[in-house]
Structures
1.
Amino acid sequence: MTGSSPDWTLIETLVPGEMNIVAKGGNPRSLTESLSLQRLSPDPKIVIDAFLKRALDASGRHEEVTELRRRNGTMAIKLVADPVVGPTGATHALQLWIGAADLDPGPPRTASAVSWLLEKGVIAQTQEASMMSGVEPAAHVPERTPAEYYAKSIRFDDTAGLFALCLAPAEGGHWEGSFSVLHADGRIMRWHCHARACLEPGEVGVRVLWHDVTDTIEPDKPILDVLARQRGLEGHGIYPALLAPPHGYLAMWLCEQPPPWVQWRDVSSGEEVFHPEDRPLIAAAHRRLLGSDGHEEITVRTNSREQPGTWTPTRMRISGYPGDLGRYLAVVDMYRD
């Protein structure tokens, strides 16, 4: 070893044909910064774009060594690229390391990939994505509902921005932001996310790239007034949530402890929370609310946690979500008579 090892750089490849620098050494960069990949090169003879394209075509880690002539001799430069592969097999990112050939790159920073599959109402995840929050490999589940996935978050301030992309993906659409996530060992982590719309058949929705920046950016803590409001509602037996009525599924709980009678975990799709015959009822109530400040109360049947395989009558107060996103989302309070 002749010195300290350079940092890893994260290159997102969420859209075929596009590559952008989104982090270096755990410091996130915006998708809109448009930094030149060639700026990463230690010498004009090393063309970074071409190397990354070769890395995308490779399976697994890709390495190359280049000899550069210097006044006092030659210097061997090593380039290493590790793919971050998503659950559908697409490469969501490349982790890039460039340094002297006699240096050990060390492990790349923790990153993983997931896909929000709009038509199925699930978030598909790799084993690496599960392990980021401390899930053991044996407990990995390849698909989770949005509500299950975001239940791990203890602070997420831009729900609207992400859901606007995930529920209505359009060409060129993108989002980026941070979550505070509770790890299985009890510590709070900070994950930074980059997401782009995907319109490919069978994968319509959003491709997502996560990376752990806990060591470079302090995780946010839950806001006290939000926690107080959540606990106040739960104390009265009211459980708020976000629904995606046009698609008929539960998107996210807005309470710490979801209703104990609803089976919302370990279901194959977010649609399975509500009885199939009641999903059109929810969608119809939502359509009547569009453009108004009112609300509607209906009774639906929810998947029973108390008696698996059966349905439990649940009262639901539906209110419109503010702004344009109200076409796709609704705020609901769920309770039992």
2.
Amino acid sequence: MKRFLFFSMLIFIAVMIWVSVHEKEDHIPLPQKLERAMRLTRMMEYHDDDYDYIVRYPSFFEQTDDSLMGKGCCRFSFWQDSTEIVQTAFVEPNADSLTLEQAMKKYASDLHAMYQQQGDDFFILSGAIHLDSGKISGRRFYVKFVQHRKLWFVQSLAYPEECERAVKRLKDEIDNWKVW
């Protein structure tokens, strides 16, 4: 286990040095460097012991300490300059016993989703991020809700619009996410 953690830290350091060095040496924008780093990085796996689901995330993302999160939650993030990418997963009760169609309609409205896709036991939404004060310029979200009994298993991604191509691998991970 110690060897695995040491190896993971080495990969993280190598990717961060690569991004930092190349950022200073040339004039390629960070989103393009990030796209290359995402393509080359090793994906790590997080296992939630409370709900027994797995989330894959890039090795150079920082994991938020589980003790700071609620039961069934995890958070991974990348932050450099003004670029922040946040990947989260959590479980929430389906307190109103909504069907897949009802939940998709409700959350699409709540989140101001511009894109909707429905599968057998899931739906995916995406669009610009909104707060009570309105749309946040240049920020987007991508989220998958998986229904299981009276629970929603949710994995989401928040990212800058200019990183759309860079987060393609993460969006593919979310698309292919199977809770069981």
3.
Amino acid sequence: MATSTIMPATTVPADTSEYAAGRADAQDDARALTIRQLQRRAAHYTHHATLPRAMGYVERVWEIGRERAALATAESKRAYADRAAI
């Protein structure tokens, strides 16, 4: 019988302070940058920052992209519904 180690689907880096700092950096940058600019900055982070910090930044950029896409969809549906009511 073989033994196996079960790994979680997502792993959090051992240095959670750097991970959280990367997420915070992405959140701060999101106030002034477009999603394309955030993606470019994330690519820069992957080459020049520590691995946990880069992971936090990239994951937050992905979340921001999904949030903005969902918001744009909801706003367009609302605008369409408002026009249909006129």
